[in-house]
Amino acid sequence: MSARSSTISPTGWRPTTASGTRRSRSSPPHTESTRTWARPAAADAVRRAAYLHATFRVASPSRGPCPRGSRAHPCPFPRAKDASLHTSLRAALVAVALLPIASVLSPANAAVPPGAELVKVNEVESSGGTPGDWIELHNTGTATIDLSGFRLKDSAKSSNYTIPSGTTIAAGAYRVFDESVFGFGLGASDQARLFAPDGTSLVDSTSWSSHASVTWGRCPNGTGAFATTLASTKGAANSCSTPVNVKINEVESNGGTPGDWVEIINNGSTTADLSGYVFKDDANSWTLPSGSTVVAGGYRVIEEAQFGFGLGAPESAKLYQPGGSILVDSTSWSAHAATTLGRCPNGTGAFEATAAATKAAANSCSAPLQTQAWPGSSSASTVDPANALGTNMSGLAYEGSGSSAVLWAAKNGVGTLHRLTFNGTNWAPSTGWTSGKVLHYPSGTGDVDAEGVTFANGSASGVYVAAERDNGNSSVSRNSILSFDVSGSGSSLNATREWNLTSLIPATSANTGFEAVSFIPNAALVAKGFVDATTGAVYDPASYADHAGGLFFAGVEQTGDIHAFALNHTTGTATKVATIDSPFIGVMDLSFDTQTGKLWAACDDNCTGRSAVLDVNASGAFAAEVINERPTGMANLNNEGFTLAPAADCVAGSKPVFWSDDSNTGGFAIRKGSITC
113-228, superfamily in CATH? Predict the structure, then answer.
């Protein structure tokens, strides 16, 4: 075979000169040395490389020198004295030919615009959103990113929404796309995917196997793995399902250095990220910036110069989760403290004037509140029939005395009221109350999340239940006190009145609102010199019409606060008369001791079963005077109910107390102990 015939023209390719033009018939023979083969742009780069290699072999210098003037074969190169030169040239040509392959296979060629990887699918509403499903994107970078042409898809091949031209997302900002915009719904087992403008290069995605009870979002916001959020925060930082254990710990509201400030303490065991949390006073708000963290056991001080407004008197300081709707902690004051206002004991106690300002350090408390041993028998025994009541038992109230006593018990799921009496062996459901009576709102509908129970003038005048929500709408707070006529024989009870007090207290999450309620008669409040916070004067019952002869004290699980209300039984209106800081992170039940005129506040296993005794102090406010440890003979149970017997049941210096265990440990929900009297 001749040298020329060994140069095979591949199908669809055309010979070109080095300049890229076709070789003319009149071109000198030596120009054959520059012959290459051009293929249309869609040609396979591997075949191209092979043919270039073949062409190179045709002109191989190994064929020897060409005689001057010879036309026997092309002579593109002089003979190579060094074979390595030939090898290098061949390798170079093949490498150049393979460049298209490298560019196709290289991730750098993926059609993802620079910086787009910083845009994250951050939160997804796949069921029951407002106005429908939605997908939230978050720019975690430091520069605005153009989303023009990007695609949103779910798991279906047919779902494909192109983001309009001119759509941008600023640094640190959020962009929400509603179902009405992208045109397809999100299913229970689905995906939310963001693609680059080419429609195939994935930028970010998430998937889920069932609808989230709230929303599906990254925790921590923008960077973490996906989880069910604590609250929907459309277009804002995610509210994650593991709330941080932080408290407002100390407040300087007047004359601080360099101005007002608020100190936050992390009572948890890990670093708390407060990025996106919202600080408010009574009229203003400020969002903590990204990177706002507090180490375990540490402090973070936010300054007036940061949040941009001063703290007055009267005033409040409140910390909310991202989005500004779910309260984490708060405190309020009617006058500036001479020093600062701080928690005593540090981090957990009620607020009081400190001995000295201790900015970013443990509070200086004038008289730390000490705990003491349980003031009664060290033992506690089960007193209900085995497995008679089950789980979810909550508040308790003791009515009457001796053999005619009744133990009222609230159950929070399904919301039920139980009436227990002593049968000589156990405290068991009384006749007609075997399974308790299911509670409804005045409309006859709903599932009242019954948490606390009390009565004002005996159960014949009505039994009152504190509830934090309607279990049929469990994601919405509905902090209410409801009255029930318990004289009927039916299996359910419709409330005769509901006082919805949600707007009168700081916002809580749906399942951490009202947990306790107790009634204190006017005579006891007046005798103690209790001060009405709405007037700053000693409480005057005549200021409140038809309020059942006393005030209703409701305890909050989320904040540990106790709020006192005058409930108008004619109009259904209410007035908050005072707010009391308990020494606990959450109040689970309240019981007024008619014998001593003091209010007991009980915590659950989160406080190792402690209870506090509160009395009216010299300033006319209820304050804790002592904290009691639980009886040593009782395990640290999830006790959500607590009540005391009256003085009439004091025998030989001892009277009964009762606890209810939400977990029904060992098949028993009610336990009995005693205190000295």
Answer: Lamin Tail domain (2.60.40.1260)
CATH topology of domain 393-604: Neuraminidase (2.120.10)
Instruction: Divide the 677 residues of the chain into consecutive groups of 10 and give the mean pLDDT of each group.
Output: 37 39 38 39 42 42 43 44 46 44 41 89 93 96 95 92 96 96 94 95 95 89 88 89 85 92 95 92 94 94 96 93 84 85 91 89 77 96 97 97 96 96 96 97 98 97 98 96 96 98 94 97 97 95 98 95 97 97 92 97 94 94 95 97 97 98 97 97
Using an 8 Å Cβ cutoff, are 409 and 396 in contact? Answer: yes
Nearest Cα neighbor of 674 from 610, 613, 630 is 630
Q: Do domains 246-368 and 393-604 have the same CATH topology?
A: no
Q: Are strands 437-440 and 463-470 parallel, antiparallel or unpaired?
A: unpaired
Write down how long the chain is. 677
> Contact 559/327 with Cβ under 8 angstroms?
yes
Residue 632 contacts residue 351 (beta carbons within 8 Å): no
Nearest in space to 300 (alpha carbons), one of 360, 253, 363: 360
Given the structure tokens 């408010």, which residue do they identify?
280
- Pick from 398, 395, 253: nearest CA to 334: 253
Domain locations along the chain: 4-108, 113-228, 246-368, 393-604
Residues paired with 190 in a beta bridge? 208
Task: Specify the residue for token string 């793995």.
Answer: 225
Domain 246-368 has CATH 2.60.40: yes
- Report d(CA 417, CA 406) in Å as an integer: 13
Phi, psi of 539 (to 5 degrees): -55, 130
The type of residue at 301 is V
Find, among 439, 299, 296, 375, the residue nearest to 595 by Cα.
Answer: 375
* Alpha carbon distance 398, 460 (integer Å): 14
147-153, long-range: CB < 8 A, 24+ apart: 147/119, 147/175, 148/197, 149/197, 150/116, 150/194, 150/195, 150/196, 150/197, 150/203, 151/194, 151/195, 151/196, 151/197, 151/199, 152/177, 152/182, 152/192, 152/193, 152/194, 152/195, 153/191, 153/193, 153/195
Q: Positive or negative, the Cα torsion across 160, 161, 166, 169?
A: negative
